[in-house]
Amino acid sequence: MPPPDPAHRRLTQRDIARLAGVSQTTVSLVLNNRAGADSRIPAETRDRVLRVIRETGYVADPAARRLAARRNRILGVFTYEPVFPSATGDFYHPFLVGIEECAEQFGCDLLLFTSAPTVDGRKRVYHQDNRLRLADGCVLLGRELDREDLARLVGERYPFVSVGRRDDAGGTVPYVGADYASAVRDLVVRARALGHERVAYLGHGVGAESYADRFRGFAGVVGRPLRLAPGEPADMAERVLAAGVTAVFAEEYADAAALADLLGRRGVTVPGDLSILTLGDPTRPAPTDIDFTGFLIPRREMGRQAVEDLTELIEGGPPVQRLLPCELTEGVTLAPPTK
Amino acid sequence: MPPPDPAHRRLTQRDIARLAGVSQTTVSLVLNNRAGADSRIPAETRDRVLRVIRETGYVADPAARRLAARRNRILGVFTYEPVFPSATGDFYHPFLVGIEECAEQFGCDLLLFTSAPTVDGRKRVYHQDNRLRLADGCVLLGRELDREDLARLVGERYPFVSVGRRDDAGGTVPYVGADYASAVRDLVVRARALGHERVAYLGHGVGAESYADRFRGFAGVVGRPLRLAPGEPADMAERVLAAGVTAVFAEEYADAAALADLLGRRGVTVPGDLSILTLGDPTRPAPTDIDFTGFLIPRREMGRQAVEDLTELIEGGPPVQRLLPCELTEGVTLAPPTK
DNA sequence: CCCTCGCGCTAATGCGCATTAGCTGAGGAA
DNA sequence: TTCCTCAGCTAATGCGCATTAGCGCGAGGG
Fold first, then answer.
1. Which positions of strand D lie within 7 Å of protein CB atoms?
2. B33–A contact, CB cutoff 8 A
């Protein structure tokens, strides 16, 4: 590549140094406030340098900075599912709000790894020419992270924090998750207290950690846990009714909404004839006016906390795993059973 | 900073070179597919290098790459108003969708400049220690961009594209805007065709380019354009009625919604007694069930196009300014005047 | 008068890569 | 044989910065 037009070449520390009549080293020292015992800079010199910097509007090249100092104040954000495109977009949005807030607070920029190509319908961190190392560390977002990716990140000692609990992958995976198990357990206990004996879990209950955790919480307090696969929406209502339960715990909010709708058409009232509880926020659009009883995922807080943990990890701290409590929502879809 | 534990030091081209029994230069050449006449590499050597790269999973350090090659495939996104926090969030979301889509298509990552501190209630591109130059170029988003920022970007020949038309700022400002003037004109013409003679523009009509453009379109086809400042919502309805017009063109969707609501309470029907037209999508939450006649801003497309123009600008292309057409919405709030 | 000593600074180096300018050895021409 | 060519590489350099080692100098001590 030809060298850029010198007239428009941007300023470097050397330029500043020349203008201030000092060395490049001194500029760097002033810039980074390195007033250590090994290199003191009198106020006069410092002011002179700072004045030139102010007048010229010099800003350090972050790439060079990263190369030399291995630090950037840039945090990566990798999302396994598309964030902006709106199907799941509204679900991930609050996480990003938290991430953004906290990043701003720490004075960090956010690098969204949008370039990751989609292979077999999934994104992968490690692809040809990934730019992971441009950031000091990375926040991982998505329902299902690739286990190979995780193992490799762990193996390479790359600083990252997962939003959402993850099973170990060849080492400790740092995460900020939601305490689904406890939240589900609390809901079941509450339903029990109202008299519900025959209850069902509507959902997969396996696969993604978030599903498994919910079902674990359910199975932990229900003797012989009954699980109904969501399956075809069309006959979901039938299967639920056939199960002869008085309360349904829906893994997916959208399933709860669909179920309520289907039941309504059949004249089955909620919560009169059947109680329905939601186990988290909608991950897909679920048009409904019903104020479900259930719990909310502390998404924003999870985002914030992930960034906080990440910065500490980058500083050399130990990997931490933590679960944040979910907030129960009163709602109107849980009532004592009538039959 | 102490050198990192060599056991965990990540691979460099030199490591690859050693493993493949070639020089670092060769690795670089293979990696960048530099098969020019000046440096030919036989298939055998190339394959050997590629195999080592594959086996080790080597990926080039993007910071070093940027430093040496001055290219990054990272596009910056600077937003003058907060994007995620949800007040205006829903308005900006579609722009980001378009930006993200197009960036992915081009294999670019997105750098969100979240670290820009808010000064005097506004964000500024140029602040202490900004990281603009980490990206190859930048997309600017926001209703009102800072003119000083713009002038400086232009002056420094920094590649950027504004989403939304901007007046020149010491040079041509590349933008992808919405053709508000034409859209408003079309709406006025349409209202005229239905018999509306006395019409009013409800809004500022000055300040941000997007406001000015709308009013310009309005004033261009209305003899003595009447402009009503939005002012206090409480008496907005009174002022509109006092103006004795048959159709109102509302700059802000939220104002249209508020107006319709206020009129409804007074028994004034829309569009029976008064037609109301909206000039774009809601920039603030506007709860309403009304299907307004007006137009939509091609936000997603604007985002896409901005990224496309930006990449061409980075490639050395000329700055382009373009306006995208707005889509008229039929709606139910425009009808022939009754008085 | 020499000899520390510490202050205030700078020369030199390397981060990992892309790029330019060669260098080497084999094969062909003279 | 000698020279030339050219394919196939490599050494060297610099991108802009942070960092390390250390230089020159004046003050204070012996």
1. 7-12, 14-22
2. no
Do the beta carbons of residue B325 and residue B124 sit within 8 Å? Answer: no
Is pLDDT larger for residue B115 or for residue B175? B175
Tokens representing B90 are: 């829903």
Q: Single out the residue of A238, A237, A240 nearest to residue A227, CA to CA.
A: A240
d(CA A64, CA A72): 10
Report how far residue A304's alpha carbon sits from residue A309's, in angstroms, rounded to the nearest whole number.
9
Residue B85 contacts A, CB cutoff 8 Å: yes
Residue type, B282: P
Supply angle C-alpha A10, A15, A16, rounded to 5: 110
Nearest nucleotide to A65, CA against C1' atoms: D17
Q: CB atoms < 10 A from the CB of B330, how many?
A: 10
Closest C-alpha among B108, B96, B304, B72 to residue A115: B108
**Count of helix runs (H) and strand runs (E) in chain A:** 11, 14
pLDDT tens digit sequence for B165-222: 999 988 999 999 999 999 999 999 999 999 999 999 999 999 999 999 999 999 999 9
Amino acid B161: pLDDT: 96
Classify the C-alpha dihedral B191-B196-B202-B204 as positive or negative: positive
- Calpha distance A117→A191 (Å, rounded): 45
Whole-prediction pTM: 0.81
Query: Which residue type sits at A255?
Result: D
Residues in chain A closer than 8 A to B86 (CB atoms): 93, 97
Token readout for B115 is 């670290």
- Give the separation between CA B104 and CA B304, rounded to whole angstroms: 10
Question: Going by C-beta distance under 8 Å and a sequence separation of 6 or more, which residues neighbour residue B226?
Answer: B198, B199, B200, B201, B243, B245
How is residue A283 written in tokens?
């991950």
Distance CA A159, CA A137 (A): 5
The reply to whether residue A69 touches residue B108, judged by beta carbons under 8 angstroms, is no
Give the residue among B35, B12, B6, B36 at the shortest CA–CA distance from B24: B12
| DSSP string over B316-327 | TPPP-EEEEPPE
- A23-32, A316-325, B79-88, B254-263: range with lowest mean pLDDT: B79-88
Residue nearest to nucleotide C9 (CA to C1'): A26
Phi, psi of B122 (to 5 degrees): -130, 155
Contact of B115 with A104, CB cutoff 8 Å: yes
The string of DSSP letters for A267-312 reads T--TTTT-EEEEES--SS--------EEEE--HHHHHHHHHHHHHH
Burial class (CB in 10 A: 0-12, 13-18, 19+), B64: middle
Radius of gyration of chain B (CA): 27
Answer yes or no: are the C-beta atoms of B187 and B295 closer than 8 Å.
yes
Q: Quote the CA–CA distance of A318 and A312 in Å, as a whole number.
A: 8
Question: Among all chains, which residue has been given the structure tokens 């998505």?
Answer: A142
CA dist., res. B286 & res. B253, Å (int):
7
Question: Which pairing describes strands B118-119 and B122-123: parallel, antiparallel, or unpaired?
Answer: antiparallel
Handedness of CA A168, A174, A178, A183 (dihedral sign): positive
Which tens digit of pLDDT belongs to each residue from A77-122? 998 876 665 555 578 888 988 998 898 888 888 888 876 666 666 6
Strand partners, A324: A178
| Burial (0-12, 13-18, 19+ Cβ within 10 Å), A11 | middle
Instruction: Check if B339 contacts A (Cβ < 8 Å).
Output: no
